[in-house]
Specification:
The protein is of the alpha/beta class. It has a domain at 4-194: Rossmann fold (3-Layer(aba) Sandwich), CATH 3.40.50. It has 17 helices and 15 strands. The strands form four sheets. A six-stranded mixed β-sheet has the order 2-1-3-4-5-6, sandwiched between helices. It has a four-stranded parallel β-sheet with strand order 12-13-14-15. The protein has a three-stranded parallel β-sheet with strand order 7-10-11, covered by helices on one side. α15 (442-452) runs parallel beside α17 (472-480) and α16 crosses α17 (472-480). It comes from Labilithrix luteola. Residues 220-434 form the Radical SAM core domain.
Length: 500
């Protein structure tokens, strides 16, 4: 039975959307996001694939997302159906899912289970069940934990290949023939045929940049914001980051003129998106132009060494009240290890500029639990953050370090949940009354780490964990049962449960 509250919420959301592409086509697929609606509509990648499908002749998609009210409760998850026509997920010929990061694999399993679709591809009947196609940011690092569930996975930048794959699926009725045809397309991973051998990462032609989002809505995490790329990739070489200069040729920029001409005249809030937005050579001019037009501006990434007086002044004119940038590591030694350009002098200047331009606070993101980190590094962070707080109020946003595949730090171990929690407490205690310090969960960071470094077997453990309640205890138990471990002799494979 459909919940009246949920149906009313969906109607309200559809009514509030600006820019939705209403279209019917002979071949309509379920464009799925394994997180709630607000996150889906704030994902530029998801929205870019939506637009690519809806603008293609003979193809259309309807959106399916995880139910907000049952995000962490499988029993409460209502039968997934599309937002547009309320068609049940299992009635679509293809489920095309965008997976942003490792924990969302659990969300995909919840959607499949709630639809009575066998989660494991080996258990699905191609005559009765949808074809499951995956893509998204996770594919740039390690899509192998997705392999037990997906018939095919597009690796890398997918907006061009997705349409090609859907046309193959539309024109090829037999499942075996579909897999064979898709396996011949560059950058498409077919687990049944390729095993664990991944293809190279796809790269779209530069003329397809920038991506921009079709839909604006007040119900997105980035409320009523028009999202558009300023660049794709990055020219820097940060050792922990998947989107570094060696990924897909580094940074590819859109021109200022192209960016501005694509922004709708009625968009009051504009989000400039990319891995290195502040490295765009025209970024100050872009922000000032948007501020002159009376628009509020948000940027997805600000590097402290790029924040000049003119830049921060432009941000203030664009509505910034908190200057947010990255400290990255807790000490100069840790930042040098990460090959970050952020120095203490840059961060001090950021605090001074935030104060000068009337901002409420300086927010700094950083990681702890880095390789070779010690309490001395945490104490240095306390000392330096205290110094910054004398200039401008400071808030720290902290994430435990998780090594990712396809980075120079691939294979580095997880510091340990207890180690991370002790360092967090040391940091909070040292900064009490001076700065706010908030962190994502060390326990869930460990789960993310195991999946980031894992393979299909770790993916199967997610299935077990989700069906066992989906809490941390369930994940810990499922990972402890793995028949293979992350091997101490090889940096990538160490005993997973020992990292707790």
């Amino acid at each position: 039975m459909k919940s009246p509250n949920r149906e009313a919420r969906i109607r309200e959301r559809l009514t509030a959307e600006v820019g939705r592409l209403d279209k019917q086509a002979p071949f309509t697929v379920a464009l799925t996001y394994p997180s709630p609606y607000g996150a889906a509509m704030s994902s530029l990648g998801y929205q870019r694939i939506y637009r690519a499908i809806m603008e293609s002749s003979g193809l259309a998609c309807e959106r399916v997302v995880l139910d907000d009210e049952a995000e962490n409760d499988l029993a409460a998850q209502e039968h997934p159906a599309s937002l547009e026509s309320r068609t049940p997920l299992e009635e679509f010929p293809v489920i095309a899912v965008s997976v942003a990061y490792e924990i969302e694999i659990g969300g995909l399993i919840r959607l499949l289970d709630a639809s009575n679709i066998p989660a494991l591809r080996d258990e699905r009947d191609p005559e009765r069940h949808p074809f499951l196609l995956a893509g998204g940011p996770l594919t740039f690092s390690n899509p192998l934990p997705l392999a037990p569930f997906c018939d095919a996975i597009i690796i890398g930048e997918a907006e061009e290949i997705t349409v090609e794959v859907l046309r193959v699926l539309e024109s090829t009725p037999r499942h075996h023939d579909r897999l064979a045809a898709l396996a011949k397309i560059a950058h498409v991973f077919v687990p049944e045929l390729h095993g664990a051998v991944l293809p190279t990462v796809a790269k779209v032609p530069d003329e397809m940049i920038p991506a921009w989002a079709a839909i604006r809505t007040p119900h997105a995490v980035l409320s009523d914001m028009f999202l558009i790329e300023t660049e794709r990739g990055c020219s820097r070489r940060c050792t922990y980051c998947v989107m570094r200069r060696s990924t897909n040729g580094g940074m590819r920029m859109a021109s200022m003129e192209k960016i501005l001409e694509l922004i709708p005249s009625d968009a009051k809030r504009v989000g400039l998106v990319g891995a290195a937005v502040s490295d765009h050579p025209k970024i100050v001019s872009i922000v000032n132009t948007l501020a002159d037009q009376g628009r509020e501006v948000g940027l997805s990434s600000l590097r402290p060494d790029r924040l000049s007086d003119d830049f921060v002044g432009a941000l203030a004119r664009g509505g910034y009240r908190t200057l947010t940038t990255a400290m990255d590591g807790p000490s100069e030694k840790m930042r040098e290890q990460l090959e970050r350009k952020a120095k203490e002098k840059h961060l001090i200047r950021c605090a001074e500029l935030a104060k000068k331009h009337g901002m409420d606070r300086l927010k700094l993101y950083l990681m702890i639990g880095l390789p070779n980190e010690s309490d001395d590094d945490i104490d240095e962070c306390v000392r330096f953050t205290t110094e910054l707080s004398k200039i401008c109020p400071v808030a720290l946003g902290i994430a435990p370090f998780c090594a990712k595949r396809n980075t120079p730090m691939d294979g580095q171990g997880f510091a340990g949940i207890s180690v991370v929690e002790k360092r967090l407490e040391r940091l909070r205690r040292g900064l009490r009354g001076r700065a706010d310090a908030r962190s994502t969960s060390a326990k869930w960071a460990w789960v993310e780490y195991v999946l980031a470094q894992g393979g299909p077997e770790e993916g199967l453990a997610v299935l077990e964990a989700v069906r066992d309640g989906g809490n941390f205890a369930a994940y810990k138990k499922a990972f402890s049962r793995l028949s293979t471990r992350i091997d101490v002799a090889k940096p990538r494979r160490t005993l997973a449960i020992a990292q707790i």
